[in-house]
Amino acid sequence: MNIAGALADLYTLQERDQELDKIKEQQELLPPELIEAREKWAELSARLGQLKERYLTLQREYKQNDLEIKDLTAKRKQAEDEQMQSSSVREQTQFENRIQQLSTRIDELTELTMPILEEMENLAEQIQALEAEMAEMKPELDALEAKNAERVAQLEAEYQEKFAKREEMAASIPKNLLREYQAIRRARKGVGVALVYAKGGVYRCSACSVQLPTHVAQRVYQGQQVVRCPSCGRLLWKGPQEG
C-alpha cells in the first residue's frame, strides 16, 4: 500500500475512532433526571448521617450522665443507711453534709440530662422522617439507575460492534503508521490525521489552521512520504479530491 492510500484509510479509520469516542462520551453522560435524583439522595444521606452522628454523641453523653446518677444515688443511699446507724451528732452532721452534696450533684446532672433527652427525641423524629423520605424515593432512584444501566449496555453493544469493524479496518494499515497515528491522537484531542486545504493559494492544516510552508504542502500532495504539520504535529493528508 502506498503512503497516499494508507493515509486515506487512516483518515477513514479516524472517523470510526471519533464515532467510538462519541459513544463513550454518551455512556458517561448521565440523564439530567438521574443527576438530580443522585444529588438529592446524596444530600439526604449526608443529612441523615449528620443527624445520626449527633444522636450517638448525645446518647453517649446521656448514658454517661445516667451511670453517674445511678452511682451517686447508690452512694447517697449508702450514706443514708450509715447515717441511720450512726450514734454521734458529729457523724450525723457529716453524713448529712455528704448526703446534701450527693443530692446537689444528682440534681445538677438530672437538669443537664433533660435537655439531652429532649434533643434526642427531636432527632429521632427527624431521622425517622428522613428515612421515610429516602425509602419513598428509593424505588424511583433504582428505576432511573436501571434505565441508565440499560442505556449504557446498549451503547456498549454498539461500541463493541463498531470496534470490531474498526479493528478489521486497522489491520490493513501499516503498523508503524498506525502506532504513530494513535500516539498523536491521544495527545491531540482525538485527531491524529488532518486534511490540508488550500484557499487563495495558501495551504493550511485543517486541525490547527496554521499556514503551511509551500514545500511542506508540496510533499503532502506528492503523497510519497508521511508528513506532519510543523505546528501541531498531526499527520497531513491531501484529501480525497486529489485521489
UniProtKB/TrEMBL annotation:
Keyword match Coiled coil: yes
Every CT398-like coiled coil hairpin domain range: 13-187
Alphabetical list of InterPro entries matching this protein: CT398_CC_hairpin, Oxidative_Scav/Glycosyltrans, Zf-RING_7
Keywords: Coiled coil
Pfam families for the chain: CT398_CC, Zn_ribbon_9
C4-type zinc ribbon domain residues: 204-236
Protein name: C4-type zinc ribbon domain-containing protein
Annotated source species: Oceanithermus desulfurans
Taxon lineage: Bacteria, Thermotogati, Deinococcota, Deinococci, Thermales
